[in-house]
Specification:
About 45% of the residues lie in helices and about 20% in strands. The chain is of the alpha/beta class and about 350 residues long. It folds into 2 domains: about 5-165, Rossmann fold; about 170-345, Dehydroquinate synthase-like - alpha domain (Dehydroquinate synthase-like, alpha domain, Up-down Bundle). Bound molecules: nicotinamide-adenine-dinucleotide (NAD) and zinc ion. The site of nicotinamide-adenine-dinucleotide has 31 residues, from α2, α5, α6, β6 and β7.
Amino acid sequence: MTKTQILLPRRQSSLKSLDKKLKTLNPDHRRKYFILTDANILEHCLPTLIYNVPELESADFLELPVGEACKDLSIIHEVWGSLLESGADRSSVIVNLGGGCVCDAGGFVAATYKRGIDFINVPTSLTAMIDAAIGGKTAINLDGVKNQIGCFRNPIITCIEPAFLETLPENEIRSGEYEMVKTLLLTGRENWQNQNLSDLEDLLPYCVNFKQSVVKEDPEDHGLRKMLNFGHTIGHALEAYYIGQQKEMSHGEAVGIGILYALYLSTKKLGLDHACYSQYRSWLTKRIALPHLTLKEIEQLLELMRNDKKRADNETLFVLLQAPGVPVIDVSVNDNEIRDAILTSANK
Ligand SMILES: NC(=O)c1ccc[n+]([C@@H]2O[C@H](COP(=O)([O-])OP(=O)(O)OC[C@H]3O[C@@H](n4cnc5c(N)ncnc54)[C@H](O)[C@@H]3O)[C@@H](O)[C@H]2O)c1
Ligand SMILES: [Zn+2]
């Protein structure tokens, strides 16, 4: 697989570095650029991109629907058609300017159009900067079930420009912060609970390098990469459950709560120090109210997890921590242990 070059701000902004890279990538301007984006990003980020990356001045734009709606086959079909109509060929380059949804959908378009063309990710949300825009997983949804169709294809460049976060809504920033805390726990960053999460000069490269190092070892998710699912096993079920109830719970919040359950299970199954669980619980409860789920609701979560690929019979495979920085993948947890984790951690 192509190796991704990651551009982070150093002496100059990463957008300036991108402009330089494009000058060498496409010196005679024979390659055509197609920028995929959504309405919010078109308004808030596209002018900054074009101003700082004049090499993209003559690019075509394709506007996708906002959020998960763009990860739909009907939209991908439309984009393939527009590319064909605009004369996109095998040398064309797609530039995904947006959050994780645009990066996932645009990556899938690039991976499939004419059997695969080059693409560049320019993430604009925190989640996309530290996660979705790195690692080559492209995806669309199938009949409302997330990320069922996709393939691995690395962007040739991922350009991370924190200035884009200035217009990202507060709830989206918070959502990305849970994924940052996931990284801090997986890597055993000392004193993480006192870390100022808005110190992105420090944390962005830290999280980006971590993700990059994990996917380099296990690009196609057969082993080590599974650790990135920490907090996501019950987290995904919670997210799906709340969507079904038409209640609000962001992916980040669901993962934040999923991490709490995973830490509780880690104390029971792998001897994780209880202080780590308590510290996390007190950090989390300052940010959100923990859900008090009824037994019936927990059964519904278990049912949702039954549809998840990580589950066999009455056992579910979890990523747990032996200690901060020491994740263990594929730990088998039974339904009773899950019930206990959800009920107990709501209260203490
Ligand atoms: N491929 C992967 O490895 C991977 C990893 C994590 C998440 N994902 C996927 O990413 C998606 C979630 O990504 P997300 O959280 O970025 O959601 P998103 O792409 O829906 O973006 C969140 C919202 O913020 C807006 N937005 C983005 N950047 C903005 C900016 N700078 N200013 C103003 N508004 C802005 C978007 O228009 C959208 O409304 C999910 O579909 C998830 O499955 C993929
Ligand atoms: Zn996540």
